[in-house]
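Issue 218. Parser rejects a valid record. Input:
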Amino acid sequence: MALHIIAGIDIARCPTSYAARLFSRGRQQIVKRLGEEAVEALIEGIRDDRQKLIVESSDMLYTC
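Output the parser choked on:
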């Protein structure tokens, strides 16, 4: 439910944004991208690189 609300707001504000393009590709692409970002965040967490972990976590949350 929240996914649709966020998508609607972003698409209405900027239909050419990354999020709008991602949402237009469908749920499968969103889940794929979320998985990619989650793995990247886990890798940086294991490496103990705080700055990169923050960046990757932000990317993951944005994709949600």
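Fixed in the parser; the record now loads. The chain has four helices and no strands.
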